[in-house]
Design goal:
Blueprint lengths: L1 E6 L3 E8 L13 E7 L1 H11 L4 E8 L2 H13 L6 E4 L5 E8 L4 E7 L14 E6 L1 H10 L8 E6 L13 E4 L9 H5 L2 E5 L5 E4 L4 E4 L12 H14 L4 H15 L12 H11 L2
Parallel strand pairs: 1-4, 1-8, 2-6, 4-5, 8-9, 9-10, 10-11
Antiparallel strand pairs: 2-3, 6-7, 11-12, 12-13
Helix pairs in contact: 1-5, 5-6
Length: 281
């Protein structure tokens, strides 16, 4: 049995770093720029692969240059691409992102498509299925529900119709939705809420608490939440106790902030182990 299937959005992001957002009609000089693969489920899949977890991504891309860039990036990262669908009559989702260095914030403009991935023929091989907002709709259309052969995890950044915490073994919403972890008792699941530089809240129905963020170089927090959720699922695969799992997720997400994009500075498992061992000294 394979370990994790991530389901959701894959984008090509053009990212620009500026000292400060320009005002209307103002011209500024960019400090840096790059192109990267993005999307919550996609970034989580790359995180899992970096941490040595066997992971596949189910997404839809166009038969275009951007789609080929996504496909090659996933292959190079070690993500299984058997469930990546290439569709000729759509454009690959694109994003344009401006990151303000001084304000530690970003503006994101996305050109999405609406096509959801098809259900993999080998769906029973996965121990965990991790979804973003698009993946949530996809697994519902597939008839996948909690209590089946795979445990379900969701990374969700805003309230959408049909969202129910009890549908997931691991419910990891943005604090924009809630900071209430008490539903873990009611729904018998794990609830983890990342609060960025303020750390994370957690409850598994038996214990609850908070874990502080790490001290790390920060260039950009772009994608850090998606990295956090990928690392959190990795810790579940490793059968870590909840507080340690959240510490791992905080650490991986914090280290990813050393890069402008959401992926280039995600640590490997050996880098993570070395950092955490040093932090204990």
């Amino acid at each position: 049995m394979s370990q994790v299937l991530c389901v959701g959005v894959a984008t090509v992001d053009n990212i620009v770093l500026v000292e400060k957002y320009p005002s209307a009609n103002q011209r500024v000089v960019a400090l840096d720029s790059m192109r990267s693969v993005g999307g919550p489920a996609t970034t989580a899949a790359v995180t899992l692969a970096r941490l040595g977890i066997e992971v596949s991504l189910a997404c839809v891309i166009g038969d275009d240059e951007e789609g080929r860039f996504i496909f090659e990036t996933l292959k190079n990262e070690g993500v299984d691409t058997r469930n990546v669908e290439v569709v000729s009559n759509i454009n690959t989702a694109r994003g344009t992102i401006v990151v303000s260095k001084s304000e530690q914030s970003r503006a994101i403009m996305v050109m999405p498509h609406e096509q959801l991935p098809k259900k993999p023929a080998d769906i029973s091989r996965y121990q965990w299925i991790h979804v973003d907002q698009a993946g949530m709709g996809a697994i519902k259309s597939w008839g996948i529900t909690r209590g089946g052969s795979a445990k379900l995890s969701i990374d969700i950044g805003y309230q959408i119709p049909g969202l129910n915490p009890g549908d997931y073994d691991l419910y990891a919403p943005s604090e924009n939705i809630t900071t209430d972890t008490s539903t873990a008792i009611r729904d018998k699941n794990i609830v983890v809420i990342s609060q960025g530089e303020r750390g994370s809240l957690y409850s598994d129905g038996l214990s609850s608490g908070s874990v502080p963020s790490i001290n790390s170089e920060i260039l950009s927090t772009l994608g850090a939440g998606d990295v956090f959720h990928g690392a959190l699922v990795a810790a579940q695969v490793w059968n870590k106790e909840i507080s340690e799992a959240v510490l791992i997720a905080n650490t991986v997400a914090g280290l990813s902030c050393r890069g402008l994009d959401g992926q280039s500075r995600i640590p490997s498992q050996s880098e993570l182990d070395a950092f955490m061992a040093k932090a204990k000294i």
